[in-house]
């Protein structure tokens, strides 16, 4: 009986605790919901230049985007690109671990934040560059989608609303995917390959990223004739207003802004001396060789240097071989009076910066667009 009594008591105690635990858990859930209901918050932009009311709880980046204020972001709001920086004057939460690596001492003093990591939980005051307030959302129709290589496609989009776009060669847009296979809509940044003179169209070069939500949509779901949505223009990657010799370095879809800049230079009669170093693994990674070779024949100021780093030794490739950094170093031993324009992965760009600075180019003469 004693043992039974103990067992009965233990059973009652366990049942009581379980019941109490469920009640506490329910209370916590209800409390959390109450806490997370931040109501309507006001975002004050540039000392009252714009004021918008949003539902509290979302990120500053998404809240602005929902109100047609498009802050640049190349990583879809994951805090991996650091493009979405804005100045948060009042109402910003504490700097979190995702932001810390991307904010320098001076930026912190100026209250610079990653807008994708700032939660709108109360009224907030921010400052953004004035040009971002003129960024538009565009609707267009995909005229063609054609393969450039086995993993890169070219999109040509005809604008529907608005019907024209004004931009500077080298800038990018943020393409918005549609929902598919349980994936939500996302936005990703892609440089424009078309020249600014073609105001009714936008051309993009997109490389397929393994498991990439937007690129998978582009390659496997997007069809010619389909409506597409994007915002822009974004970015400060463009040709400077100097006479310095130009060194372009890019491989793969990194060609997009450079191809746009080169066509813009030809159209405007810009005769600055320019060399484009295109790095690839093998010949199947090359594209537009005929177009760039033709441009080299048409104008005296341009030189095209493709290089393959992993081409089979027994192939009949007559061009340069090896890492693009080594090829650049052999062609350009003195870069002290030149400017560098780089487009591609962070690793490639960092390696090229080392080569160019070693050859005498100062870092303020190096301009780049890092793909994330």
Topology of helices and strands:
Layout: H1 2-36, E1 40-45, E2 50-55, H2 60-65, E3 85-90, H3 105-109, E4 112-114, E5 124-127, E6 136-149, E7 152-161, E8 172-176, E9 187-191, E10 201-207, H4 213-220, E11 227-234, E12 245-250, H5 255-268, E13 274-280, H6 289-298, E14 302-308, E15 320-321, H7 324-331, E16 338-344, H8 346-358, E17 366-370
Parallel strand pairs: 1-5, 12-13, 12-16, 13-14, 14-15, 16-17
Antiparallel strand pairs: 1-2, 3-4, 3-5, 6-7, 6-11, 7-10, 8-9, 8-11
In short:
This protein has 372 residues and is α/β, with parallel strands linked by helices.
What does this structure look like?
The protein has 372 residues and is of the alpha/beta class. Helix content is 27%, strand content 29%. It contains 8 helices and 17 strands. The radius of gyration is 26 Å and the shape is globular. The model is unreliable at 1-18 and 30-34 (pLDDT under 50).
């Amino acid at each position: 009986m004693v043992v039974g009594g103990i067992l009965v008591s233990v059973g009652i105690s366990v049942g009581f605790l379980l019941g109490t635990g469920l009640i506490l858990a329910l209370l916590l859930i209800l409390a959390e919901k109450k806490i997370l209901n931040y109501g309507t918050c006001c975002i004050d932009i540039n000392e009252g230049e714009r004021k918008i009311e949003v539902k509290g709880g979302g990120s500053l980046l998404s809240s602005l985007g929902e109100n047609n204020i498009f802050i640049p972001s190349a990583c879809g709001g994951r805090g991996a690109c650091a493009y979405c920086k804005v100045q948060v004057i009042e109402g910003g939460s504490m700097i979190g671990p995702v932001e810390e690596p991307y904010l320098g001492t001076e930026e912190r003093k100026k209250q610079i934040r990653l807008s994708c990591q700032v939660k709108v939980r109360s009224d907030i005051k921010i400052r953004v560059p004035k040009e971002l307030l003129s960024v538009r959302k565009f609707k267009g129709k995909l005229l063609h989608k054609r393969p450039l290589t086995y993993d890169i496609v070219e999109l040509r989009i005809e604008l529907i609303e608005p019907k024209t776009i004004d931009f500077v060669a080298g800038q990018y847009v943020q393409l918005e995917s549609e929902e598919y296979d349980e994936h939500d809509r996302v936005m990703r940044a892609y440089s424009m390959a078309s020249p600014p003179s073609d105001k009714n169209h936008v051309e993009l070069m997109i490389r397929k990223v393994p498991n990439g939500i937007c690129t998978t949509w582009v390659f496997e779901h997007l069809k010619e004739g389909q409506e597409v949505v994007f915002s822009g223009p974004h970015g400060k990657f463009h040709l400077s207003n100097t006479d310095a010799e130009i060194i372009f370095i890019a491989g793969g879809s990194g060609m997009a802004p450079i191809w746009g800049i080169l066509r813009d230079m030809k159209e405007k009669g810009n005769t600055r001396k320019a060399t484009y170093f295109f790095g690839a693994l093998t010949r199947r990674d090359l594209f537009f060789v005929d177009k760039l070779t033709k441009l080299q024949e048409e104008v005296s100021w341009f030189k095209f240097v493709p290089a393959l780093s992993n081409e089979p030794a027994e192939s009949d490739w007559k061009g340069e071989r090896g890492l693009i950094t080594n090829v650049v170093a052999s062609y350009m031993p003195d870069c002290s009076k030149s400017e560098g324009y780089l487009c591609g992965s962070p690793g490639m760009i960092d390696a090229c910066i080392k080569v160019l600075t070693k050859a005498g180019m100062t870092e303020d003469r190096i301009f780049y667009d890092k793909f994330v």
